[in-house]
Amino acid sequence: MSNDAEDSTTYVERTESEAHKRTPPSGIQGWGADLDPGVRPAVPKERTPQRFVDAHWDDIEPQADRGVKVLHSNERPGLTPIYGTAQPPSGVSGMIRHGAFRFSENDLRHWLMLMFADRVNVVEGIIEDLAHGHVPNIFKEMGGPAEWKYNRQGFIRKAVIAGSVVGLLLYLNSRRSRR
Fold it and tell me: Could you list the residue range(s) of the whole structural domain that residue 6 is in?
């Protein structure tokens, strides 16, 4: 043990140039590659980035309250200085989102409810379009023409699978209604 202690103290007392001249121990490939800057391949590119002297994000004034309900994590005591208000939660999807934010962000229910709220929001958007007299072209909006043009085999495979599933469901439903 005393030899190890003597070695460490003598190593500390050595100058930097002496440390570069040390012979690498046998059996350890790549040992000492970081001692000589000429050995490191990234040396010309290595540089220490400048530190931020003026951390301007600490002095951001809070966004003005516009009366829009903003959902935020229950793990934070308050709102961040800047937040989005373009799409406030509304309808059934908004109620689901409100429920999701009762749970912590590390809870699976939080994220599953938010994903479900997104799907509900899509259906609400289609219903809203129909209410305003606009019939959405779902095939085009979901990328059908691009799929047909650039991935025809995949498109046909998906169409066959979807047709089979719909056909099977219709067959099972007709058998059930005959009983």
Answer: 2-43
